[in-house]
Design a protein that fits this description.
By secondary structure, this protein is mainly α. The protein has 2 domains: about 1-45, Orthogonal Bundle (Arc Repressor Mutant, subunit A); about 55-175, Tetracycline Repressor, domain 2 (Orthogonal Bundle), CATH 1.10.357. The chain has helices at about 5-20, 25-30, 35-45, 45-65, 75-90, 95-105, 110-130, 135-155, 160-175. The termini are far apart.
């Protein structure tokens, strides 16, 4: 493992164990077994390290999303994708919150995720039709996901996140697939 990989691994581990406050350059260097100049050489400063940690989180998240099998049931696929990102957030809450905060200041970080979701909604429209125009459906799913992200940022306990997630997805899916005119 290269020094850069050791530093990133140590930073992610500290973040998940101790939260953002535990992510100090000194602690990361100690955990990675490197000197501060080595960290600065690879990441510039703590902000660069945090950006790299977020990048690793986005990479892991999207790898998980891309690994999901596409079926002939786009609504079930949308549900699995929704549940997977909620699960990712619950399994790695500190990293997930950091990713959400970073994406708010740099929306390009969420672009691939948005496109992945949009492709599934396009498939849903082709297979079942939608009760609203495609752009509205896509924005509704994205807005619902953003609402769930707000709950993560507020630190809502996992059991309530799961319950709210199930309810919100069910409501959005029912509205998207309702017969036209309803």
């Amino acid at each position: 493992m290269s020094a850069k990989e050791k530093i990133l691994s140590a930073a992610i581990g500290l973040l998940e164990q101790q939260g953002v406050d535990g992510l100090t350059t000194r602690a990361v260097c100690d955990a990675a077994g490197v000197t501060a100049p080595t960290l600065y050489h690879h990441f510039g400063d703590k902000n660069g390290l945090v950006r790299a940690v977020v990048g690793e989180g986005v990479t892991a998240f999207m790898a998980m999303k891309r690994a999901q099998r596409v079926t002939n049931d786009p609504l079930a696929d949308l549900r699995r994708g929704w549940d997977a990102w909620i699960g990712f957030g619950l399994e790695r809450p500190t990293l997930f919150r950091l990713m959400i905060e970073a994406a708010r200041s740099d929306p390009t970080l969420a672009q691939e995720s948005f496109e992945h979701m949009k492709e599934t909604v396009v498939r849903l429209e082709a297979a079942n039709g939608l009760s609203v125009e495609l752009s509205v459906a896509v924005q509704a799913v994205w807005a619902a996901a953003s609402g769930m992200q707000a709950l993560f940022l507020q630190g809502l306990e996992p059991v309530k996140i799961r319950a709210t997630s199930r309810f919100l997805f069910k409501a959005v899916a029912a509205a998207l697939t309702a017969p036209s005119g309803n």
